[in-house]
Amino acid sequence: MRIEKAIKNSIASVSLQIIIILLSFIERSIFINVLGAEYLGVHGLFSNIVSMLSLAELGVGTAIVYSMYKPMADKDTSKINLLMSIYAKLYKTIGIVILLLGLAIVPFLDFFIVDNQNISNVRIYFLLYILKSAASYFLIYKASIFVVDQKEYIVSVNEIIVTIARYIIGIIILSMVKSYFYYLLWLLCITLIGNIIISKKADNYYPYIKKRNTTLTLPKEEKRTMAKNIAAMFSHKIGSIVVNSTDNIIISRFLGIAVVGVYSNYLMIVNAIITIVTLMFNPITASVGNLDVTESEEKKYDVFSNVLFLNLWIGGFSAISLQVLLNPFITLWVGEEFVLSTLIVLMIVGNGYLAVIRKTVLVFRNAMGLFWKDRYKPLFEALINLSLSLMLVSRLGLIGVFLGTLIATLTTSLWVEPFILFKYGFKMRVRKYFWKIIVFSMITLLAGLLTWYTSNMFNDSSISSFIIKLILCTVMPNIIFILFFFRTREFKYYKYILINIIKR
Known about the structure:
By secondary structure, the chain is mostly helical. It has a domain at 1-233. It has helices spanning 2-35, 37-53, 60-73, 77-105, 109-112, 122-135, 144-148, 152-177, 180-205, 220-245, 247-254, 257-281, 284-294, 297-334, 342-357, 359-368, 377-396, 398-411, 413-426, 431-455, 463-485, 489-503. The chain is globular. The relative contact order is 0.11.
């Protein structure tokens, strides 16, 4: 039952992301043709600034969702209602704080945009973007109850409908009205509509959350635990935002807003892959949360090993495909003037690969509530990333920004996160994990070199060459992975599941 729910949630989530990717490419193409690279750069910069402001969220969502796993398993509706009431108050406060912080930044926007010559009304655009971000906090918290109840597919289906509307109307506005102002106004409207719809659905599925709990209060011990988890998640949020959401700000400040526009195309594609992987594995979080309160450490580790194997396979295949196909795709899509060097692409893909292969550890850490144990790690990661990126950007340019991120991840997250999970979650040594990561990464490197060498035999910029490279990327890495891993327990596990699905 647990596996079926996780698979159902994953399929719905991935389906959503595939639709988003297809529509986002159409919208991005029209955006570039109508508004140009400078507006694209501004859009990417606003996204990073808003991500920085989301620090105000403090990690409240993850900490409260973790607190709801046990009452959901026990069907304790009073406790769930109490936690949802706390969640609502905190998120409304956060929305107001983000709005105020955004207003405070408006006078200083010129500091982030050093070469703004063609874009007027930047402050008005930024205010609309801030309103959109703040509005998302007022009702969206109700979606969390579907996640805890392993019914995230309901949220995904709702998002599919809202996202299709968001892109179709956005494409019409860009094509016919050719206005960034009305485009941002539509993004604000559809954010509110989506939140209202999912809020109403949550009220219908779980009527008991409509009445705010005024009698029950959390015991002092639970309050202390929640406060600790929120503090720990705030630390993790700082690390995540500095690593993932400062690149565009640094690039805009030191290299120019047009460079942000060029890089944002690559970032959109890489982030789409990372998001697909995240959506494949995030629905497992509720299942792991249930697993954590009902099963032994050995059982949990067995499930972890199976999930990790799939995660590494997908991560390796994605990294190889991106390295081979990104520049040919960008050339065909928007033209050679938007293409970055092979070395810069390698750095972007390398950071994406590390982000993907960490997903299994993060899912299990979040589900087991181990936020407090590695609370200092993200602070060191943020410090290393920001200082190195700022120091290297003036010497190495764009490569320096990505090199700072790569070094920060390698020296902190890649080893601290699994160490904490194994020590406190599985209560066993982490040696096996690192061996699996090293072996799979070496085989991924081998498969990548062979695929790259073979694909370079078809090096012109035609569609036919791109299709041949796409076929090579689909076939070669997977054949190499099968040859190396077909005897492993994890491979046999997925083979068994696949055979059962085919039989059905």
